[in-house]
Amino acid sequence: MRVVLLAAGLGTRLRPLTSKMPKCLVPLGGRPLLEIWLSRLSEAGFGPFLINVHHLADKVKAFIAESAFRPSVEIFEEPMLLGTAGTVHANLDFFQGCDGMVVHADNYCLADLAEFKKAHEERTKGAEITMMTFETERPGSCGVVQLDAMGVVSAFYEKVEDPPSNLANAAVYIFSRAALSAFPDAVDISTDVIPQYLGRIQTYHTTETLIDIGSPRALEEAQRIAELRRINEVSSGM
Questions:
Q1: Contact, 220 vs 26, CB < 8 A?
Q2: Nearest residue to 1 (alpha-carbon basis) of 134, 122, 133, 176
Q3: pLDDT at 113
Q4: Would you call 122 helix, strand, or coil by DSSP?
Q5: pTM above 0.85, yes or no
Q6: 1/110 Cα distance (integer angstroms)
Q7: What string of DSSP letters covers 164-231?
Q8: Among 7, 45, 54, 60, which one is least packed by beta carbons within 10 Å?
Q9: Which domains does the chain have, with CATH numbers?
Q10: Residue 178's Cα: distance from chain center in Å?
Q11: Triad 36, 39, 40: Cα angle to 5°
Q12: d(Cα 65, Cα 50) in Å, to the nearest integer?
């Protein structure tokens, strides 16, 4: 399955770190976040990949050019940011008329990606999108959902005061080919696309680590977890 990795963000909340390094290349456990995504997706049977770039685009291009993933990666440079939905809309041909995955690559995500794909393949009849969800301690800072008895999104709230749920949108999606064929010419997936599909979004819930590294506090937590994983892998001989 083809994957679009959204990696063009400015990373303003992580400055001065991101003044010289794009957020997608911030190291976690000694590995750039983008490398972690590409490795885990490839291991789960996903690919090829399209990565959008903007901020410090040359550094992302250089990283890909020197990586083992180069043959399976296409770069899409945006002189002006198109927004998450805008990037997908501009690259609909990349999916070749098939289902496709869209990932916010500034998340440190240890979810079982193969199981996520399986959940999409076994989704409720009528569902056209599968959304990954997780429980958050800060529901007011992200998009949260309410579900029906079948695990389908019945309501969605994007960064509202006093949110009615702590079940958060992980910003990791699989769109059916029907959803991609009708994908709107819009700016943002969360605010412009998701509301159009209420009642047609299946969810896959993960209890594994999922951290948006958009703040120094979150980055520190992700780096701590990644370093512990690295140490454990070294000690176990993996």
A1: no
A2: 176
A3: 97
A4: coil
A5: yes
A6: 19
A7: S--EEEEEEEEE-HHHHHT--S-S-IIIIIGGGGTTSEEEEE--S-EEE--SHHHHHHHHHHHHHHHH
A8: 45
A9: 2-235 (3.90.550.10)
A10: 20
A11: 85
A12: 14
What pLDDT, on a 0 to 100 scale, did the predictor assign at position 238?
55
Rounded Cα distance, 199 and 128, in Å? 9
Residues in a beta bridge with 173: 102, 131
What does the DSSP assignment read for 86-110?
HHHHHTGGGGTTS-EEEEETTEEE-
**Which residues, in sequence order, are bridge partners of residue 5?**
51, 103
d(CA 144, CA 164): 8
- pLDDT tens for 191-225 read 999 999 999 999 999 999 999 887 888 889 989 99
Tokens describing residue 87 = 């990037």
User: Residue 52 corresponds to which tokens in the numbers above?
Assistant: 């959008």
Tokens of 35: 């490398």
pLDDT value of position 236: 67
